[in-house]
Each structure stands twice: as C-alpha cells, then as structure tokens.
Specification:
Number of helices: 18
Structural class: alpha/beta
Radius of gyration: 23 Å
Distance between the termini: 36 Å
C-alpha cells in the first residue's frame, strides 16, 4: 500500500483540512510526508489559520499513524488516495473529490460504467418493483449499481444486482466498522464479495445524520447516470439528485402518483428538468451503451505495455510510414519497430 499512505490517512482525520486545503498543501510541499511534518511557521505561510494549525499540531502529536494503518489492514480493509491507480475515474472528475477512500472489497475498472439508484426508506410496492426491474436489467447488461445501502430503495437495488450476477457499490455515511443500518450487515458482506463498500470517513466514525448528505456526492460522482425512484419532500435522494446535476450527470426520476408522499420529490424533479424514467432503455440510451460495448471490446484487445499501446493507437486501416508513427509517438525508431513486431 506504500509508506506514504499513512500520511493520507492522517490528514483524513484532521478537522479543518478538507480536499481544497489538502490540495493547497500538496502544491506547497514536495510530497504528503513533507506536508505532514511541516513546521507551524510554514503552515502559516501557506495560509492555514491559527486554530487549524493548533488542532493539526495537537492531533499530529497524538496520532500513531502506523497503529492506525495496522488497524485498517487487520480489519480486512484497504485505503486508496488521489495518487492511487485504483481511485475511481468518474469520482476524480468531480469538484473536491474525497482525498481518501476506505475500501472493503475490490474496485473494478469496469465500475466506471455505473448507474446510481437511490430513493426513499419507506418505499411503495410500485417503487420496489421499478427498482428491481431497473437494477436487474442494468446488472445483466454489465452495468455496476451504486447506492447507499440504506433501508428501502437502496437495499433493493443492491440485492437485485447481486441476485442477477452483477456488481454493486455501497457508499457509507460512517466508518467501515460502523455498518448502518445494522440489519444490512449480511448484505454488506455479500456486497464486499461481489463489489465494494467504500467511505471517505475513517474507522470509528459513527453513522450520524450530518454524515449522509456529504456522502451523497460520492454516490452520484461514481456514476454516469443517477436514477431517483421515490423521494419525499426533503429526502436525501433529492440531495443526491442535486449533486448529480452539479456534476453534469444525467438525472432520471420515476414519475409517481401525485397523491403519494413518496412521489412528491420525484415529480418535482421532473417538473424542474429531470428526465422522466419510462423504461430501462431510456437509461441505456443515456449511457450510450453501444459505445460502452465497443470500448470494452477495444480495451480487451489493447496491449498492456504502455509503449505498445501508444503505437497501437496510431495505427489504422490506412498505411502509415514508421517515421510518421515515430513522430506521433515521440519514441525512438528501435522501440517503434520492436512494438510493431
């Protein structure tokens, strides 16, 4: 996991140092280890206030980073950061992506083709059926389902994906050692074996109400498309929809009975510009599924070697001289000819 990762974990436990301040610090120091060991004077020079510096110095003196890493790894979890190759591509595109993710399970490169399905805790039979059909169809098409492992719509979305051989990602509003709700612990184990559970909250973080709205930016950030199945007024699912719109994701809302409280939020989303969800084909079309399939076929046959990939990408069905390839790739002729061979 790398010696540097413990410093990422350390900064993630620092109050007042979020993505923007951490980015500033990384731009000011050679690496994250140097930022961790910075003196108070230097921290002040780069713009940190006295209270933040005071808290930073106190926590830094008390925190045993090696013990914290041992605690994470011995629990069967791992940590990834902005610097990690496994960091989700879609999530890295959003404003202020979380610097650190705690992961239970395995992320997959194909998880970049994902749809977030969220909704109310108190779903109707209509909402349950729509969620089952949507999640099942997407899973059977190789699309990863992202949700928040809450009661109601979220749980149905995860279970439907798993029962149909698909992958699913659950995003928590707590540490991985404080699964919520407790009745979903078995579901969590199943997800960890056939997908991944992740959070940006460190171990020991309890599922407090204030944690859930910020985690919704991750639920939407991991996906290309977000579908709100049912949502009452003030529902957390509406927060996810707003994050998704800000992140440039397509937002679908399932139309519902105007007299049903669980449909007030989704009907209002449609009124305000969300796309009415009328069939699974609507979502597949928004995903540009044909392009996805073609891209996966291309990726399957692309060489793993970086130089060979560069050369391969310059080839076409038209003849091209080796000198033209060399100029396009900015590589020595010897490497070009070896790669072509």
């Amino acid at each position: 996991m790398g010696e540097q990762m413990k410093y990422w974990v350390g900064f993630n436990k620092m109050p007042g140092i979020g993505p923007m301040r951490l980015k500033l610090m990384l731009e000011s120091f050679e690496n994250i280890e140097a930022a961790w060991h910075a003196s108070p004077g230097v921290l002040s020079q780069i713009g940190l206030g006295p209270k933040i510096i005071e808290d930073f110095l106190q926590i830094r003196s008390e925190l045993d980073l090696d013990a914290e890493m041992d605690r994470i790894l011995s629990s069967g979890y791992k940590v990834i950061s902005w610097d990690s190759e496994e960091y989700p591509v879609r999530l890295k595109e959003i404003d202020s992506p979380p610097p650190v993710l705690y992961v239970w399970g395995e992320l997959n490169p194909n998880d970049r083709w994902a749809v977030s399905i969220v909704g109310t805790l108190r779903m109707s039979s209509y909402g349950e059926v729509v969620t089952q059909e949507l999640s099942t169809s997407l899973a059977m098409n190789g699309i990863t389902i992202v949700s928040g492992m809450a009661r109601g719509i979220d749980g149905v979305a995860h279970r439907s994906a798993l029962h149909n051989g698909g992958r699913t990602i659950a995003v928590l509003g707590s540490g991985l050692d404080h699964l919520y709700p407790p009745e979903n612990r078995q579901l969590a184990r199943e997800i960890s074996e056939n997908g991944v559970i992740l959070t940006d909250y460190p171990l020991g973080t309890k599922p407090e109400a204030r944690n859930f709205p910020p985690r919704n930016r991750i639920i939407s950030g991991l996906a290309l498309v977000v579908v709100i199945v049912e949502a009452g007024e003030g529902s957390g699912a509406l927060i996810t929809a707003h994050f998704a719109a800000d992140q440039g994701r397509d937002v679908f809302a399932v139309p519902g009975n105007i007299y049903n409280k669980s449909s007030i939020g989704t009907n209002q989303l449609i009124r305000d510009g969300a796309i009415p969800f009328l069939s699974v084909e609507d979502v597949l079309e928004a995903l540009n599924f044909d392009v996805i399939v073609q891209q996966e076929v291309i990726n399957e046959f692309m060489p793993e070697d970086e130089v060979e990939r560069k050369v391969y990408e310059k080839l076409s069905f038209e003849p091209i001289h080796v000198d033209a390839i060399r100029a396009a790739c900015d590589l020595p002729v010897s490497k070009i000819t070896a790669s072509l061979t």
